[in-house]
Amino acid sequence: MPRIAQMVTWLVGRRIRTRRPAAQAGAHPRARQRVLALAAAVVLILAGCGGGATGGGGEGTSAPPAQGGAGGPVTITIGINADPPNLDPAMSSALVDRYVQNSIFDKLYDLDENLQVVPELAESLPEVSEDGTVYTIKLRQGITFHDGTPFNADAVVFNLQRYLNPDSARYSELSAVDRVEKVDDYTVRIVLKQPYSPLLYTLTDRAGMMGSPTAIQEAGDQFGQNPVGTGPFKFENRIKGDQIVLVKNPDYWREGLPKADRIVWKVVTDDNIKVVNLKAGQLDIIDTVPAQSIADLRSVPNLKVEIGPGLGFQGIYLNTEKEPFNNPYLRRAVDLAIDRSTLVQVVFQETAEPGYGPFPPSSPAAAASGEPPQRDLDQVKALLAQGGHPEGFQFTLKTATGPVTQQVAQVIKDMLADAGIQMEIQQVEFGSLLDDTDNGNFQAAALGWSGRPDPDGNIYPWLYTGGSQNDSRYSNPGVDRLLDEARQVLDMNQRVELYRQVMEQVHQDAPYIYLYYPKNVKAYSAQIQGFVNYPDGIIRTENLTKVR
């Protein structure tokens, strides 16, 4: 029996608990009941000792304070699957960063639950010149940052110019911007080098987050250690690897918001522990749910589970500047040796879909991704021969710590072994994995993307030469030309055709192995009110409260 068939039979027979992983997430054990029993015991012991939920570090730290009586302070504790690496919007590159940042920083614009752009710190949608190169934005008045610094046009110009620095992670998102100008105290003008269709959507994310110029100038590159925005919650403290505590902004400009007094972002890297803590009431919301825990959670009367469409993708970077993946035939061989449908069926069930490109089914450019290829070992072996390795080769895959990421890697390892490709698995802490990919210190690395509503955000930074997420070090002048052209086209049908041409070339070059599209799966206590499962995966906290 081929090794992949053995793997599938073993996994299904063991009824392993799995979940939809974010790029940085971990997951589950081999023996379901043994781990859940142990986790339950840990929760009971900690509860008896006055401790809180445990997870990726911070052992022995205290739990968030219990809720007060009627009318008392409301604390909402949210379990997240990794410690946010950087809370500075200029340098951030992780989804878990965005969870916390969206509570601290307001943006010029935001998305509603239907992914439509709505004004936030901007007073209205911008006025756009006929040629599409000048955006004039009116700002809300009377808003201050958490440190008392006024929010005005000077603050917006300061932040956008900071993001335009080539060292910023936002640089490629705003590379079409020529300059940002102050028109008056509450009006700014963004002048583009050429039309840039994704601009508004870009300003609904980190490139639109406004930080206090005073705090940024004082803290410099340490701003992420004590971030200051205008958002509904203020940063209070952080225990690295354990939790981040935010407190209510009493001067928030939206009347009646926020509704809660404290938000605690609790780092729990093991999803099974996270589920147990949710059931025990130690967590109010969890950001990811193991696939085979869904039925169990749905059976609990005081819990809710929501599954919605996602915007992102998951896959594997191949370092095109290092052996063995400076050889395009070997990259393509790995790509075609993976059975994506089997991977999703075994590991994720209803919480993900097989993928073969940067655009999930929810994207307006979904058709450009293409259909996953049929696994063909004869073709794989032919590619190995063309690449000078007819008997196969070996490489190391770096992946984040956690049982689910380990399971995904193990399934892929067995698939590749059928073709004579030997893959070693090396698990590293999520922040270290980001550093390694940024620095090129890897052969292959399992990392994905939480996704953006405009297709450009899912493809340009990843495949454009020098793009902020192009850790594969991929460079193709033809791809660059098509991606630049797509940015200047306003008609989505024309953009989709350009992206289709890009992906034809990218599938041949295979710098990144697209594997699957995670869905948004959130579980939470029925006591929580105001929760909306947005397609971008971000948990909005300003409307959250708890029924006592």
TrEMBL record:
Coiled-coil residue windows: none
InterPro entries in the record: Peptide/Ni-bd, SBP_5, SBP_5_dom
Region (Disordered): 354-374
Alphabetic keyword roster: Signal
A cellular component term, taken from the record's GO annotations: ATP-binding cassette (ABC) transporter complex
Gene3D superfamilies: Dipeptide-binding Protein, Domain 1 (3.90.76.10), Dipeptide-binding Protein, Domain 3 (3.10.105.10), Periplasmic binding protein-like II (3.40.190.10)
Pfam families per the UniProt record, alphabetical: SBP_bac_5
One Gene Ontology molecular-function label: peptide transmembrane transporter activity
Protein name stated in the entry: ABC-type dipeptide transport system, periplasmic component
